[in-house]
Amino acid sequence: MGCSLRTVWDERLSSYNFGPQHPLAPVRVELTMELSRELGVFDAPGVSFASPEPASDELLELVHTPDYIAAVKRAGQTLQADEPYCLGTPDNPVFPGMHEASSLIAGASVEAARSVWQGEVQHAAGIAGGLHHAMPGHAWGFCVYNDPAVAIAWLLEQGAKRVAYVDVDVHHGDGVQTRFYDDPRVLTISLHESPLTLFPGTGNPNETGGSAAEGYAVNVALPAGTDDARWLRAFEATVEPLVREFQPEILVTQQGADTHALDPLANLVLSLDGQRRAYAALHRLANTAAGGRWVLLGGGGYELVQVVPRSWTHLLAEAAGADIDPASTTPDAWRRYVLERTGEAPPLYMTDGRSPDVRAFENGFDPEDPVDRAIQETRKAVFPSHGIDPSL
Predict the structure, then answer these.
(1) Which CATH superfamily is domain 5-386 in?
(2) pLDDT tens-digit readout, 228-269
(3) Is there a catalytic annotation at residue 133?
């Protein structure tokens, strides 16, 4: 069955560019859009496009301080580092038009949220977004403005009373958690590699929300080496029961593709096929727990050719109700485009050839398995706040 999907896209979104040596390269989004076009995702019934407008200062100030916004504008004009705001660091180099590029991504995510909230479409995608690390008063982890947080804050301004945010990036969604840590209207859930082995060093299970929102910040910290089956087991045992219990009015998700085994910056070992299963699970949750209202954003992902375009094309296809057979070959025209654009040999198939066999957590807890221990830590930390028995 088809779904209505609005993709918020404009080639100007590629101007968020830290330079040729930086791992967050906009070509990954360009390759995704081209692959999705070639595979007919955008030809599916109910798929439409919208062009974003830059987020105004007023919108950005729902999350960011006025002095920080002014610093971003200044840095993009002078190209001078501003250390108190973490601008001009190796992670967050200054580039011309930094404010304009960053505010456009924030505007795209708000437009996606608006399209869904106002009932124009069931689902909306802003895959250039998902910049979940940016803090209210400084840049952080390749992120200048926190577009997921801005979109969620906009939804709250419109009267939303329950927003669920699920972040499956390999890195902890620390900036979004920080913004809503004391707000019980927002349930933030992050599945990520353990802070013991990966940036940003936060996201432990005992980070559960402020005194007014105890249990509304949820963190599943997975050990390095977690594979498809165990990642999906953790998702089913934590995310699904919490979102079903919360019954959000809208689901906002961040789909960093850096959980993949080939990603150069992290240590989980998911396959494209495991990621595809995760996207299908998020889609089901949107339909069963959030009335079909789903805003899906991009995020991290630093294997620019082999992983991100295929992963996010599956994501867009899932949201469009136009699933792509994993055994499909990548189109010849796309392969030529990849070679011309990057000089790299493109992948030949839309699969890694994996079929993860997931064992339900309810069928038995293994205390010797570090993933099971991580799952149980999270369940014990937050399930009681939602009236859920962590032992079931």
Answers:
(1) Histone deacetylase domain (3.40.800.20)
(2) 999 999 999 999 999 999 999 999 999 999 999 999 999 999
(3) yes
